[in-house]
Amino acid sequence: MELRDIQRVYLVGIGGIGMSGLARYFQHLGCIVCGYDKTVTDLTNDLHNEGIQICFEDNADCIPISFQEPSADTLIIYTPAIPKDSAVLNYFKNKGFELYKRSQVLGLISKSSFTIAVAGTHGKTTTSTMVAHLLKASGNDCSAFLGGISSNYQTNVLYGKNNVMVVEADEYDRSFLTLFPDVAIITSMDADHLDIYGDHQHLTESFKLFASQIKSGGTLVHKKGLPLDTGYTYALEDATADAHAANICIEGGDFYFDFINAAISIPGIKMGIAGTHNIENAVAAIEAVLRLDIPADSIKNALGSFRGVKRRFEYIVKTPGHIYIDDYAHHPEELRACISSVKRLYPDKKLTAIFQPHLYTRTRDFADGFAEVLSMVDELILLDIYPARELPIEGVTSGMLLNKMSLVNKRILSKQEALDAIKNEKPELLLTVGAGDIDTLVHPLKEIMQHG
């Protein structure tokens, strides 16, 4: 398939963060773009407002006439998250269309570019967005496909005037193995997606295979301690790594650090976003963009103006009386990083958290880890498990998780009950965490925390 021949693009699962980025990209190229998704969201509303037609009924009758027969100028893209019995997906299969996964198309788009790919079981969205911002803000420029909505650019896809591309390399369904980057960052390799990989060892092998696909003469940058034999390592406050952050401190609610590697030192970097884990992401991003000869002053200024990613340690309310932070964390180690940063920033405030577990398999596989890390908060409201693509598993419930926790102040509530509880109790420090549809609570919680 030659991308330059494509004039029409249909995306099955268009509302996903990665799929919506491709939809915007092909519309930017002048293609006719439409698609199907099961749920109306803020993101699908944005796509609709940008002129992209979306059907929310899993029915082949919704497919426009111009997409009903295979053609050399028509591209059908699907996400592995779409159920195999989807009527729309099976229409295209039965009609003889050649279907492409989102990751395959990303591989084709980035094939002829100087590609910086960011992988990791967590940290990849913020780090890839940070890399893209460092390149944009320094005047070097880039195109980018991001796994979240950049707060600086209010989109998940950026268009550049040069041949540099930043992509988020997703390990789910081994998607990142379609990429052959010039520079790769691996932020973490914790056990996750065991419904796909079976065990941690197979996940680790896939990351090693991804690392082996870096182009000849390319660079691997990875967190120190990962089971990888090559590449440049980075760490927090560990001078034995090839690059590290030193003199980390908080002043006036802002995080500061020094970046140090064998060739350069950048002192007194002020972060535009909070969180010790984000300093670690910044060290990785700096080490990557230094390969493109970005000046130290440009890096320092760009990090100060970086506003992060929607739902990644995002301040929703920040007043003298009330703090409300929202985060996408849905794995025990992500939760640990997020909760630790909140407690470091606000050690004297009582922390109330609302958490929505994501997937029955993940809840089952990491139940002990979730129980341990969620017990770090002062008060917990637990929502029911968000199933996403999965069917229920007997015995795997939010109640099972609650029973494992050492925390005293814990309860299971519906979303409406959670809103009512926050309205009555008006906590001084609130955190919402999860990757399901907990984001639908963000706006009403903002109203409650601001106005009561």
From TrEMBL:
Subcellular location, record wording: Cytoplasm
Chain ranges of the Mur ligase N-terminal catalytic domain: 9-111
Residues that bind ATP: 120-126
Top enzyme class: ligase
Predominant place of localization: cytoplasm
Domain of life: Bacteria
Domain Mur ligase central: 118-288
Pathway involvement of the protein, from the record: Cell wall biogenesis; peptidoglycan biosynthesis
Keywords, sorted A to Z: ATP-binding, Cell cycle, Cell division, Cell shape, Cell wall biogenesis/degradation, Cytoplasm, Ligase, Nucleotide-binding, Peptidoglycan synthesis
A biological process term (GO) from this entry: cell division
Boundaries of every Mur ligase C-terminal domain copy: 311-435
One function term, GO molecular function aspect: UDP-N-acetylmuramate-L-alanine ligase activity
Biological role stated in the UniProt entry: Cell wall formation.
Similarity annotation: Belongs to the MurCDEF family.
Name of this chain's protein: UDP-N-acetylmuramate--L-alanine ligase
